[in-house]
Amino acid sequence: MASLFDPVHVGDLCLPNRLVMAPMPRVRSDDLGLANASTAAHYAQCANAGLIITEGIQTSRIGQSNPRTPGLHTVEQVESWRPVTSVVHRRGGRIFAQIMHAGRVSHSETTGHQPVAPSAIAARGVSMFTPSGLQPAPVPRALSTAEVAGEAACYAAAALNAIDAGFDGVELHGANGYLIAQFLSSNANLRTDRYGGSIDGRIRFAVEAVSMTVDAVGAGRVGLRLSPGAGIADAAETDVPEMYGALLAELASLGLAYVHLTASVNQDLFAGLRRAWPGTLIVNPSMPTDPALSSRLDAECWMAKGADLISLGRAFHANPDLVERLRSDLPLATADPATVYQSGEEGYLIYRSYPSERPEPADADARGRKEFSDG
Question: What is the homologous superfamily of the domain 8-374 according to CATH?
Answer without folding.
Answer: Aldolase class I (3.20.20.70)
